[in-house]
User: What shape does this take?
Amino acid sequence: MQARLRLLFLLFLLPVMVHAQRSGGGMPSGGVPSTPSLPAGASAGGQGNTEVRTSTLTIRVTAPKGQLLGKEPLRVQIYGSGSSAMGTDSYTDARSQVSFPGLPFGRYDLVITGAGIEDTRVTVDVTMISQTEFVSVKLRPSPEGVASGVPPDVPPDALKEFQKANDEAKQRHWDLAEVDYRKATELYPKFAMAFHNLGLACAQQQKFDCAADAWAKAIDLDPKSADSFISLARLRTQKHEFAEAETLLQKAIALQPANADAVVLLANAELVLGKNDEALAHARQGLKLLGPPAGGSVPQQFVLAHLVAGNALESSNKPGEAVAEYQAIVNAVPNSPAANEAQKAIARLQPPAPAGAK
Assistant: This one.
């Protein structure tokens, strides 16, 4: 089945996660952003040369009173204001906090996910040059009491190479990061996070076989790593291996049922495989998980979910409902490539009335 719109044109704009080990007991601290920081001089409204004030936003994640967060880093995603669904993400350090420098003043959506907590979504208004926000998350009970992640017995020399590679990745020196992630895995062959980040470093250099091998190894070492399943699924999608991507995403969702990224990507794979009913159901599930865009902040998954839903409805001969999905894209991101594609589809599904018709 052929999709009527270019569903995959923004697929690889969605973030690929990078892990960073939290400090504690001699372990290094700090997170690595998987995508560049939001540009300090960018105007949320995209107008003129007006000087834009920027902020360093620090997010401090807290647990309910009397409870403690786990030892694993939590992923914090931030989506910027405006119609360009920009996003970046990083991981909390040993103090359960992470900073995002160079953010233009405005409203942002934050999504906090990780082992042992319920997915949390909040909106923050950035109005100060230096601003700290405390975000409380709910803990999720673990039936086995065992958290996935880096084993506690990682030797110091392997951790040192891992942190060195993280620092190089922050500077986008992916070739150097690849070398040092490899050293970390050689020094400690069970280092799942190092294999995951090695996959990212390889992917950034378009060494896709290397990336696939690294993510597969990370999954083998840590079968609870939803991030590695999702990263490998994106790569399979790029290679048009949609059946493999579908299987990987199903496993990721089994681990993180509220992961909107995985749900929407699964909908995309199902659509291309001709599973229209499943694709529509997962697209709508993804939209429910994402919630309505707040303050002009539009996640890329929101756009992709509506594209998938529109295509599935077209294929099911429901043009009226498909138009509603495409119109949602035009309304949300009116000056984007996705909106241009959606407008073409709307024009096709709603041809103009003949001249002289009443």
Summary: DSSP finds eleven helices and seven strands in the chain. The chain has a mean pLDDT of 76. The radius of gyration is 21 Å.
